[in-house]
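Inverse folding, one chain.
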């Protein structure tokens, strides 16, 4: 996922670099809000994206302050869901097949 990669990149940065990114992101947010007020902003979703980036940076900084260990991204749930039967009938059929295999 893209956000996982962004987080890993942020965690790899030094404290000074993170502070610089935070400063630049806050400046960009200020400029976007100004453009929004003036009516020059064409894509207002940019504000949401910048706010998320600021939150990610602040989270990484706070984790470092607390000395928390780096949390790895969990495995995708989609792969596990694809292997499981979707309906109750399929579940029952799968259980019957397992019972037949153990009886042999």
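Residues assigned per position:
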């Amino acid at each position: 996922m893209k956000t996982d990669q962004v987080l890993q990149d942020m965690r790899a940065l030094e404290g000074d670099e993170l502070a610089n990114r935070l400063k630049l992101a806050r400046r960009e947010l200020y400029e976007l809000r100004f453009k929004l007020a003036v009516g020059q902003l064409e894509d207002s979703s940019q504000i949401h994206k910048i706010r998320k980036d600021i939150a990610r940076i602040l989270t990484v900084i706070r984790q470092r302050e607390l000395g928390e260990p780096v949390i790895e991204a969990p495995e995708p749930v989609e792969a596990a869901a694809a292997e499981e039967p979707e309906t109750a009938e399929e579940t029952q059929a799968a259980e019957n097949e397992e019972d037949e295999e153990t009886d042999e």
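The helical segments are 2-12, 15-38, 45-66, 77-83, 88-103. Residues 15-38 form the longest helix (24 residues).
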